[in-house]
Design brief:
The structure holds two protein chains of two kinds. By secondary structure, chain A is mostly helical. Chain A has a domain of about 240 residues: Cytochrome Bc1 Complex, Chain C, CATH 1.20.810.10. In chain A, the strands form two sheets. Chain A has a two-stranded antiparallel sheet with strand order 1-2. Chain A has a two-stranded antiparallel ribbon with strand order 3-4. Chain B has two domains: about 35 residues; about 100 residues, Rieske Iron-sulfur Protein. The interface between A and B is medium-sized, with 26 and 23 residues. The complex binds FE2/S2 (inorganic) cluster (FES). FE2/S2 (inorganic) cluster (FES) binds next to loops of chain B.
Chain lengths: ~350, ~150
């Protein structure tokens, strides 16, 4: 008598022919070289995303949207529901770690030029997910309806409103009206739990499919005889080990530094001292501070937003204008641009944090 | 592709016609589906209750050198009583990016915590990012009552 799992496998195999898939996995190899470590950050981002979906669904069982309910329901989760404080804290911490992992993943792909042909679509879907991730952060931040989130949302949506021509309608669309109110909360809730996850999942599906289909990108300088390791089980096991590690770090952070809830938002209270955006928006925020109020009669802020949007767009489209890798030469220019961006982001974040 | 009468013959014309007809149909169909969705996304204008004046409190209860946020319709207004006992009121919405300002007794200014914007007690922007002064409101003292109303 065959063991149960074998019979189950045969039962499925008979119907959907798993043979091809198993053969594919068996033939899959991951290149081994001195930059291999960076291959793991995509997996870490994926793992954190899975955690977000799981904890997010759990929170959804108790969370109530609405001006009169949101703050109280989060309070209920953290004080009354068993392990509610843990689930919420993990959700908040994992969100931050996700953005961090995505940042690292993005820059490592950029510096190793892994976006070059034929992986342009993988890069673009990745960038889309990165922007969606930021929007996830922004929309989720408001959901507890506390003071900090209330003003952060006011400022954030007001900045969107400064974009020429489309700004005002975009602001009203985001706020669900002229001001940040319960209507904004409902919208952000909708974005956060339905619209963004929907779009994100499609991007993620394409992204992962392409990674599987095209295999890992190899560094440009690699020769023909590159060392490899089998994806299954060697790479996968390493991946899982790292996931376990990340999970432990996450648990430690969530337990030792439980996420604060703060005070309930009040439209008729002053903005509290020491208010700051989330760290991943800090560098943009700090940059805006250095731009003079008016440059050639253009609003400094508007100019800042336009510059950031243009930079983001150029960055997203880098596979299409990167001539150096197309010619097959290992260019320095883009590396310098990348280093400048990293230095800029890190130093502005630190300055913003300290000020 | 075989055409009996040549490239501009009736068959091609008929094909062109069908192409535009079907293409137009697809566009019209898309429009009919998308328009209601897009329109749905635009929040309807809510009739705001027009407030012309509110009672902010009793003069005797308002300390000198203090600032309080008063609800004016659905907008916050800051009422300030300066050291000589005079009352002034301004919109409490920062002209920079919409935060709500506060009175800082230690600095003697109206301060915005969001980006360290400062206004003097006449509502003029004196430092930081705010581009414009705060909108002024009128303060009327009626006996003991302090009333705030829109400037006309
Ligand atoms: S919102 Fe007041 S200074 Fe920026």
């Amino acid at each position: 008598m065959k063991p149960v799992w074998k019979r189950l496998y045969d039962w499925v195999d008979e119907r959907v022919e798993l043979g091809g898939l198993v053969e594919f996995l068996g033939k899959k190899y991951v290149p081994v070289h001195r930059h291999s470590i960076w291959y793991y950050f995509g997996g870490v981002s994926l793992f954190l995303f899975i955690i977000q979906v799981t904890t997010g669904i759990l929170l959804l069982l108790y969370y109530k949207s609405g001006e009169e309910l949101a703050f109280e329901s989060v309070q209920f989760i953290t004080s009354k529901v068993q392990f509610g404080w843990l689930i919420r804290s993990v959700h908040s911490w994992a969100a931050n770690l996700f953005i961090l992992a995505a940042f690292i993943h993005m820059f490592s792909v950029y510096f190793t030029r892994a976006y070059r042909k034929p992986r342009e679509i993988t890069w673009i879907t990745g960038m889309l997910m990165f922007f969606l991730g930021l929007f996830f952060g922004f929309s989720g931040y408001l959901l507890p309806w506390n003071e900090l989130a209330f003003f952060a949302t006011k400022v954030g949506t007001d900045i969107a409103g400064a974009i020429p021509i489309i700004g005002k309608p975009v602001m009203i669309f985001l706020r669900g009206g002229e001001d940040v109110t319960g209507a904004t909360l409902s919208r952000m809730f909708g974005f956060h739990i339905a619209i963004l996850p929907g779009i994100f999942s499609v991007c993620l599906g394409i992204h992962l499919l392409l990674v599987q289909r095209q295999g890992m990108s190899e560094p440009e300088e690699s020769g023909k005889d590159m060392k490899t390791m089998p994806f299954f089980p060697n790479f996968l096991l390493r991946d899982l080990l790292l996931w376990l590690l990340v999970m432990n770090v996450l648990a430690i952070l969530a337990v030792i530094f439980p996420w604060e809830l703060g005070h309930k938002a009040d439209a008729f209270a002053s903005a509290p001292a020491g208010i700051k955006p989330e760290w991943y928006f800090l560098f943009m925020f700090q940059m805006l501070k250095y731009i003079p109020a008016k440059i050639l009669s253009i609003d400094g802020e508007v100019l800042g937003i336009l510059v950031f949007s243009a930079a983001g767009l150029l960055w997203t489209l880098v596979p299409f204008w990167d001539r150096e890798t197309k010619r097959g030469t290992r260019g320095r220019f883009l590396t310098y641009v990348g280093i400048a961006a990293v230095v800029c982001i890190i130093s502005l974040t630190i300055v913003g944090w300290l000020s | 592709m075989t055409s009996e009468v040549g490239p501009t013959g009736p068959k091609e014309n008929r094909r062109d016609f069908l192409k535009y007809f079907l293409g137009g149909g697809v566009v019209a169909w898309l429009g009919a589906v998308l328009y209601p969705i897009l329109a749905f996304l635009i929040p309807p204008k809510q009739g705001e209750v027009e407030v012309t004046s509110v009672k902010a409190g009793k003069l005797g209860e308002i300390e000198k050198e203090s600032g309080t946020i008063v609800r004016f319709g659905n907008k916050p207004v800051i009422l300030i009583r300066n050291s000589s006992g005079e009352c002034v009121a301004f919109s409490a919405t920062c002209t920079h990016l919409d935060c709500t300002v506060q009175y800082r007794k230690d600095l003697g200014v109206i301060w915005c915590a969001c980006h360290n914007g400062r206004y003097d007690l006449k509502g003029q922007n004196i430092s930081g990012p705010p581009p414009r002064p705060l909108d002024e409101y009128r303060v009327i003292i009626q006996g003991e009552d302090v009333l705030i109303s829109k400037k006309v």
